[in-house]
Each structure stands twice: as C-alpha cells, then as structure tokens.
C-alpha cells in the first residue's frame, strides 16, 4: 500500500522533448507532467530517491545491475550545462549498507556523470537539479544481461524497508519508458562515441518513430493502476521484444513503485509522441 510519507512519480523522458524548443509536440503529456510537478510542490519532500537507467554514458565497460550514487554530476546535454547533484551522503551510505545487509550486491558509485535519464525528471518535476537533495539509484536497463523484473521488485521492496526506518518525507521517482526503441540502444555495443551515436540516431530516427506500441503501454499502465505485480513482471520481462529496447526502462518504474509501498500508480496522462519516438506517460501514487 502507498505510504503517507512517500510520493511516487513515474514519468517517461525523451531528449526529443528538450529539442522541441517551441513546444510543438506533446502538449497532452506536458500538461500531465505539469500536474505531477504541482503534486511534488505540494508534497515538498525532504529528499528524492531517483531510480534511473543509463544510456551507456556513465557505465560502459563495468555495468552494475543496481547502484547507489554517493556523489554524482549531470553531463552537459540538450542545451543544458553540466551540473552537480546534492547527494545526502549519510542517507545514501546508510541505504547502501541496508541493501548489502538485504543481500543485494549493489555497486557504490562515486563521482558518476549521469545523463538526461536523471536530469530531465528533476528539472521537469522540481524545476532544478538542486531543488532537493537526491540519492541517484542506477538500474541497468540498457546493457544485457538485464535484471529480471521480479528481482527489481525485490530491490524496490528493500529500499522501501530502509525508508520505513527513516520516517522522512521522500519523493520516489522512476524515469524512462514507455514503448520506444532508440537506434543507439538497438546496437549491442558497449562503446560508442558521441559522433557515432549521433549518426546512428539520425539514420534510425524515421524508423524509430513507428515503433511506439500504444496497446502495450496501456496494458502496462493498467497493471500499475491495479498493482498487478504478476502482470507487471510478465510485461517487463518481455518489454524488449514487445515494445522496443527503450521499454526496458520500465524497470525503474517497478523499483519506484515497490519503494513507495507497492500500491497502485494512477496514470495522469498518456500520449504517444512520434516526434519523440516514445509512448510518453506519467503515473503517480494515490
């Protein structure tokens, strides 16, 4: 069930949204995101636990299944300058200790440089990277082999138990998804420079616009609204085959929902935005 001292917000992210400077596309999604941001403002958390994926930027040769960031920055990207996250190190270290005691062999990450998977939800939901302290929790969603959905839920449950002990007001964010298949993630390559990344994306973009799967997205959102964990596990474990390489990012939603208590997440908005190559959605806890 949902925790009174916790607000869970899960939201899609997309570099295409930030490139759309005139806000031509995704008006329905933007409206839902603004409503979620208003919920966050009213909730006013003590800090944020942010479950995010990586687009093979921070982790290339060594890829942790789960990590806890003890210190972290944000790379310059999409017209935004580089930044630094304010990580509450005592809380982050205690969370890492708790997870290790809970038999999760997490990676402890220092000075990691994270991308829009972490930056975009912070800017969109709180207005700035440094509005609140943030514990970044990377979950491998990009480089096979990926964690099984059941294990991701168990990981979120372990984070939930830690937060239960703290008694803090915590905003829990899951970021990524829904259906999409970015050309750069379709490559089974762990090392790709920015120029090659840009070329692959440009060449694959027309095809990627047609890979959104609204029916799969709706099934997933319905499963979150019903807190149907069996359905969520099945949909998440088959996400790549059914909804594209980027759909693997729904693992962050699984972790966030479990960390919030495992209760229902209600969809505020869903919009398939072809120009952003993504089924865009926002769901929040009750």
From TrEMBL:
InterPro entries with a match to the protein in the record: Xdiol_dOase_suB
MF terms (GO), sorted A to Z: 3-carboxyethylcatechol 2,3-dioxygenase activity
EC number(s) on file: 1.13.11.16
Pfam families, sorted: LigB (PF02900)
Domain Extradiol ring-cleavage dioxygenase class III enzyme subunit B as annotated: residue spans: 9-278
Domain of life of the native organism: Bacteria
UniProt keyword annotations, A-Z: Oxidoreductase
Enzyme class (EC, first level): oxidoreductase
Protein's UniProt name: 3-carboxyethylcatechol 2,3-dioxygenase
Organism: Rhodococcus artemisiae
Source taxonomy: Bacteria, Bacillati, Actinomycetota, Actinomycetes, Mycobacteriales
């Amino acid at each position: 069930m949902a925790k009174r001292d916790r607000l869970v917000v899960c939201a899609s992210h997309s570099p295409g949204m930030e490139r759309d400077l005139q806000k031509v596309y995704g008006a329905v999604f933007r409206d839902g995101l603004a409503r979620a941001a208003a919920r966050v403002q009213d909730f006013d958390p003590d800090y944020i636990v942010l479950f995010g994926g990586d687009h093979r930027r921070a982790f290339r040769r060594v890829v942790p299944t789960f990590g806890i960031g003890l210190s972290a920055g944000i790379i310059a990207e999409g017209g935004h300058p580089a930044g630094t996250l304010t990580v509450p190190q005592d809380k982050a270290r205690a969370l890492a200790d708790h997870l290790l005691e809970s038999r999760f062999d997490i990676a402890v990450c220092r000075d990691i440089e994270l991308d829009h998977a972490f930056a975009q939800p912070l800017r969109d939901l709180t207005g700035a990277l440094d509005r609140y302290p943030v514990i970044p929790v990377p979950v491998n969603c990009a480089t096979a082999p990926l964690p099984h959905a059941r294990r991701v839920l168990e990981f979120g449950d372990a984070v939930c138990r830690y937060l239960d002990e703290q008694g803090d007001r915590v905003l829990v964010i899951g970021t990524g998804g829904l259906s999409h298949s970015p050309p750069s993630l379709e490559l089974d390559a762990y090392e790709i420079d920015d120029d090659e990344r840009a070329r692959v994306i440009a060449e694959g973009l027309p095809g990627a616009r047609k890979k959104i799967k609204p029916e799969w997205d709706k099934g997933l959102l319905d499963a979150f609204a019903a807190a149907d964990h069996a359905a969520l596990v099945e949909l998440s474990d088959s996400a790549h085959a059914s909804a594209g390489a980027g759909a693997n990012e729904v693992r962050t939603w699984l972790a966030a929902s479990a960390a919030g208590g495992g209760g229902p997440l209600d969809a505020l908005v869903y919009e398939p935005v072809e120009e952003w190559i993504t089924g865009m959605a926002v769901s929040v806890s009750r």
